[in-house]
Every structure is written in structure tokens, then in C-alpha cells.
Design goal:
This protein has a single domain, classed as Nuclear Transport Factor 2, Chain: A (Roll). 27% of the residues lie in helices and 18% in strands. The chain is built from four helices and five strands; from the N terminus they run H-H-H-E-H-E-E-E-E. Strand 4 and strand 5 form a beta hairpin. Bound molecules: 2-acetamido-2-deoxy-beta-D-glucopyranose (2 copies). This is Secreted protein.
Length: 169
């Protein structure tokens, strides 16, 4: 017992020295990674409540969290907590509304790593983008994902993308 306590005390600083790979905002690429399968639920547990007071900076953080939950972490609870009840869908294969895409995402399938995919939030348009095998575009209204396109989309150039300040997430 005493030995393991001692070992833990010695290991902690060593682990802290081995800095993980981080993105521009200083967030470790593996900071969430909490895949969750919620397919036992017939609908998303929580949706986003539109809030006119959410600032563009807060929306940028939410857009990053949405990308993480959807693409990297496989976290449908967080993903749908950022989608409003209307979710206007422009892909002709799906109806509008979060319920229409719940079965696609409830299993928390991870799509790719942060290094192998792309995320961008453009504050002047309130659009966020994810790049993986395809390119998705979402419009954010009152702090929630409100509208979605995924056909013929172009990923913005890096200078258009909001740079999250260190410690923002
Ligand atoms: C709406 O957003 C603002 C800004 O983030 C926050 O202070 C406030 O608590 C939110 N209101 C509700 C009801 O969540
Ligand atoms: C983007 O959202 C902000 C609120 O976060 C709003 O003030 C602004 O008018 C929106 N811009 C566009 C182009 O819709």
C-alpha cells in the first residue's frame, strides 16, 4: 500500500511532463473521447434551448464542442444538446428535426481524429463546418445548431475560421 502511494506520487509529475498533443486552443486532442451509445433511447435526451444572450465567442466554443462530440468523440448526448428542435435539414434524404437523424448518431460512432478531420466556425455568418469524408455546414442561431447543409459545401480558408483563445474550452 505504502509503496503504491509512493509510486503514484512519483508518477504524477512525470505524467504531467509528457504534454499531450493539443490544438490551437490548447485543448488536448483526447480531452473528451467519451464515446457513448444511447440507442436504447428513442429520442435525444436533451436538445438545445435557444438563448438570444449567447455571444459569438460562446457560440464559437459551442461549435467546437459540437464538432468534437459529433466527429471525434462519438458523444451523441453532447451533440444533440447543441441542436435545436427545428434543425432545418437541406439534405433531401432526411426530414427536418433532430429526431430524423437520431438513429444515425445515437450509437456514438467516432468518425475520425481531430488531426485527420477539420473544424471551422465563421463568426460573420454564424456557420460552422466539419470536414471528413464529406463537408457539413451548420447555421447557428441563438447558441444552437439550427440548419444543416452537406451537398457541394466548401471548407473555408483558415483565415476565416475563429481562433479559440487558450483555455476557452
Ligand atoms: C443565456 O445565455 C447567457 C449567456 O451565456 C447566460 O448568462 C444565461 O444564463 C442563459 N440563460 C439561460 C436561461 O440559460
Ligand atoms: C450571428 O449571431 C449573432 C449572435 O451570436 C448575431 O448578433 C448576428 O446578427 C448573427 N449574424 C448573422 C450574419 O446572422
Amino acid at each position: 500500500m505504502r509503496l503504491s502511494v509512493l509510486a503514484a506520487g512519483l508518477l504524477a509529475p512525470i505524467t504531467a511532463l509528457a504534454a499531450p498533443a493539443v490544438n490551437d486552443a490548447g485543448v488536448p486532442y483526447d480531452y473528451l473521447n467519451k464515446r457513448e451509445n444511447l440507442c436504447s433511447l428513442s429520442k435525444p435526451p436533451v436538445l438545445c434551448t435557444p438563448n438570444k444572450s449567447v455571444t459569438p465567442e460562446e457560440t464559437a466554443v459551442r461549435a467546437y464542442k459540437f464538432y468534437r462530440a459529433f466527429v471525434v468523440d462519438g458523444d451523441p448526448r453532447t451533440m444533440f444538446s447543441l441542436i435545436d428542435s427545428e434543425y432545418i435539414q437541406h439534405n433531401p434524404g432526411y426530414r427536418s428535426g433532430p429526431q430524423a437523424i437520431w438513429s444515425l448518431f445515437c450509437s456514438g460512432r467516432k468518425i475520425g481524429t481531430e488531426a485527420s478531420t477539420g473544424h471551422c466556425f465563421v463568426p460573420s455568418t454564424n456557420m460552422s463546418y466539419a470536414r471528413y469524408a464529406t463537408i457539413d455546414r451548420w447555421r447557428w442561431v441563438d447558441g444552437c445548431v439550427h440548419e444543416h447543409w452537406d451537398q457541394g459545401e466548401k471548407f473555408p480558408s483558415a483565415d476565416q475560421c475563429y481562433k479559440l483563445p487558450a483555455g476557452a474550452v
